[in-house]
Amino acid sequence: MIENQDVDGWGHISTDTSFCLNDERLSLTQTLVSSKSLLERAEASSTLLDIFRQEWRDIYRIAKGRPLVMYLLTSHLGKFFPDSEHFGESAVKLNKDVTTLKENACNLFAVNPSFALQGSRISLCYPFITELQVRAMIEAAVDIRKEDPNNLVHVNICITNCSSTEEIKLVTKNIVQISTEILAENEMLGAPVFSVGISIDTVKMALIVKDWVQHVAFITFNTTKLTELCLGVSMQDRHLFYGNYLLNDVMPNDPFKTIDHDVFKIIQRSCLIARKQCPNLTIGIDGNLFIIIINSLIIIYYLYYRLPYS
Predict the structure, then answer these.
(1) In this structure, how many other beta carbons lie within 10 angstroms of the beta carbon of residue 78?
(2) Helix H segments across 19-126?
(3) pLDDT tens by residue, 217-251
(4) Which domain holds residue 166?
(5) Parallel, antiparallel, or unpaired for β 68-71 and 154-159?
(6) To 10 degrees, the CA torsion angle through 232, 237, 239, 242?
(7) How far apart are CA 259 and CA 228, in angstroms?
(8) What's the CA gap between 84 and 94, in Å, rounded?
(9) Cβ contact 27:100 at 8 Å
(10) Please, is 49 exposed, middle or buried when counting C-beta atoms within 10 Å of its C-beta (0-12, 13-18, 19+)?
(11) Contacts of 49 (CB under 8 A, 6+ apart)
(12) How many CA atoms lie within 13 Å of 177's alpha carbon, on the beta-carbon side?
């Protein structure tokens, strides 16, 4: 899908689908996150590692040295289990015991999936999942460098759903440790290049950026999530009221098609503080694909020229 695109790199490669692309992967993922047997969990992890590593090799070959930003697992873990109406069907399809499947699904059930066990919380509560992903990314990069020394692989690993400085420090430390060990084992420290960054998708992390920015190599602002949290509006459900708001001039511009004034001010403030503290920091924009170009142009223009936004 990305092979023929004439671009300088890719700013958001999601890994969520890799865990459930087919029935085999979904079954392995369920075992990985819910099995009480360390042996079963290790076997599932080993198989997924082989699958993921091959995927990244293929992606690195296509990228040909262009930078990639790879997001660690973001979806809440309950997503990988069926709802109550489909337990029987899924159990037969995945060759699982219905009772066990129900129990595992209940243990990971989330009342509000948007704020459930996901992102950096997975990295801290299920560190073996993050290790699996990072190991696949870095080992694949090592393989490609050995295969083609001219392919200067850039591995930029992005973590999400952070809510504290301590969280960032712990997760980044683990990622760096795993990556460094793999590169050292292969006598390839410094090549391929890897870095760790964060997607700012909570208002708190944008406001306290000075406390944690020195621990990451890049930051990216998830404009969709920041808009939802700041305005208390769901992008998927705004159609229920936006027409009336537009008619009454309450919300003259769709905040998901152009950036909201106050959301921009939060992003602008964070950018200026982060840049002052870390002059070489890479800053990016992320969010709904439909509006990402519009928002990026607005933010980049006003930040570059330091003009007031009105």
Answers:
(1) 20
(2) 23-34, 38-63, 87-93, 98-107, 120-125
(3) 999 999 889 999 988 888 888 877 877 877 888 87
(4) 1-198
(5) parallel
(6) -10
(7) 11
(8) 16
(9) no
(10) middle
(11) 132, 135, 136
(12) 9
pLDDT tens-digit map of 271-294? 999 999 998 898 888 765 444 454
Distance CA 186, CA 139 (A): 9
Rounded Cα gap, residues 92 and 115, in angstroms: 31
Tell me: do 49 and 151 sit in the same domain.
Answer: yes
Q: Are 65 and 7 in contact (CB under 8 A)?
A: no
Residues 184 and 205 both lie in one domain: no
- Please name which of 159, 140, 142, 133 lies closest in space to residue 59, comparing C-alpha atoms: 140
Q: Which two tokens stand for residue 160?
A: 């999400």
pLDDT-derived band at 173, boundaries 50, 70, 90? very high
Q: Which two tokens stand for residue 64?
A: 């040909």
List 193's β-bridge partners, or say none: 154
Burial track 159-179 (b if 16+ CB lie within 10 A, e otherwise): bbbbbebebbebbbebbbebb
The answer for 295, left when phi > 0, alpha when psi is -120 to 50, beta otherwise, is alpha
pTM listed for this prediction: 0.84
Q: Last residue of a domain, which of 166, 198, 230?
A: 198
Domain count, the chain: 2
Residues 178, 268 share a domain? no
As a whole-number percent, the residues of the chain with pLDDT over 70 amount to: 87
The pLDDT of residue 296 is above 70: no
Give the containing element (helix H, strand E) for 170.
Answer: helix 165-185
